[in-house]
Amino acid sequence: MKDGKTSGRRGLPITERRRIPMGIRVTPELRDQLVGRAEATGRSITQEIELLLERATHMGSLLDEFFDFTYRDPQLVGLLLTMGEAMRDTLTAIKAKPDWVDDPNAFAEVAIAAQQTIEAYRPLGKPAPNAGQLAVAMVRWTLLKILEGSFGIAVAVRNRIGETSHRLRAWQGQDDGWIVPAPEEINQ
Description:
The chain is mostly helical. 61% of the residues lie in helices and 0% in strands.
């Protein structure tokens, strides 16, 4: 904004970038949504569409920033993204239903996809004999955070896992050994 001018409409800055016309076709439902958003924000429909398109083009970098801020390790982020892709592709391939977490076969396929992704990244060499004890303790701590739903990612996870959180309770309170399903789940 070279001269400090603002538009008459809610004091929005006049953007001095050159605009070119671009015609698009949308469904009546989408048009109604865009009109509603534009009216609510005091922008024209064109301004609202431009803003939404600009935000959409920046989403990739926002996602990168989120992962970097949350997990702080680019290799961990890469592994998580690879694992997520493999798990999603598995769900797509088996044509999983929305309640796939309650289907033992679908869940097994997704779990194996996650495990195989981790194994694909495993470095050569043998780990120390006590490897895994710290990881098991950290998983228990993470599950407890999710059960309590106390903050941040734990709340987001809890909101998404919904009714399946009862499975997490089966693991709570075990002090030794690896995390395994509760006996009542093994016998089903």
